[in-house]
Design goal:
Elements: H1 6-23, E1 27-36, E2 39-47, H2 54-70, H3 72-75, E3 79-84, H4 95-100, E4 105-110, E5 115-123, E6 127-132, E7 135-140, E8 144-149, H5 158-168, H6 173-183
Parallel strand pairs: 2-3
Antiparallel strand pairs: 1-2, 4-5, 4-8, 5-6, 6-7
Helix pairs in contact: 1-2
Length: 185
């Protein structure tokens, strides 16, 4: 029996795997099926607002394994299942990634070529408030070319966290003015 092409396998299995992952209370961040010798490697990347621990990885592995066994005809042979969480260097590409990175330090490359190192504040479906160079600033996701969390070995400055908290509550007029300036560019 010949095995179906990789893209077709991924496309057929992703909805059922996503459902199993969601049923366990997690978000499916990435899903891929690759040929690895005579077997297939099924890679599932999960995340949640509360993070992902080893117990959760085991729970999701069991749930995904069950649905893959129910759809073994799609895989057309043996497979190795790898369930993992995203690494710290995962790009921030969706609003939920930004919400989960609240108060973290990030490196942002804007589409106009400007690089920022900023602390993440409130994020919504269109953009995020950041503290960069001591200034609150609104950044629209459409203006972000690439963004990743920076690894920090110290606690963030308390005053930065307070400024971001106040901005979230609408206390900072300076941040609101800055937002208007940034979006009009």
């Amino acid at each position: 029996m010949s095995s179906p092409p990789r893209g077709a396998v991924t496309a057929k299995l992703e909805p059922v795997v996503a459902e199993a992952v969601a049923g366990a209370g997690f978000d499916l961040e990435d899903f891929d099926v690759q040929q690895a010798g005579r077997r297939r490697l099924v890679k599932v990347v999960i995340d949640s607002d509360a993070g992902v621990g080893l117990d959760e990885i085991s729970e999701v592995s069991r749930a995904v394994s069950e649905v893959l066994d129910e759809h073994e005809h799609v895989l057309a042979g043996s497979y190795t299942l790898e369930v993992t969480s995203p690494g710290v260097d995962r790009p921030l590409t969706r609003p939920r990634h930004w919400r989960r990175a609240r108060f973290r330090l990030v490196r942002i490359r804007l589409v106009d070529g400007v690089d920022l190192v900023a602390r993440v504040g409130d994020a919504d479906d269109d953009g995020v408030t950041v503290l960069a160079g001591g200034e609150l600033r609104r950044v629209a996701y459409r203006d972000v070319e690439r963004a990743v969390v920076e690894v920090e070995f110290q606690q963030p400055p308390a005053e930065d966290l307070v400024r971001l908290e106040r901005a979230a509550g609408g206390v900072s007029q300076q941040g609101d003015d800055r937002e208007d300036t940034e979006e009009s560019r």
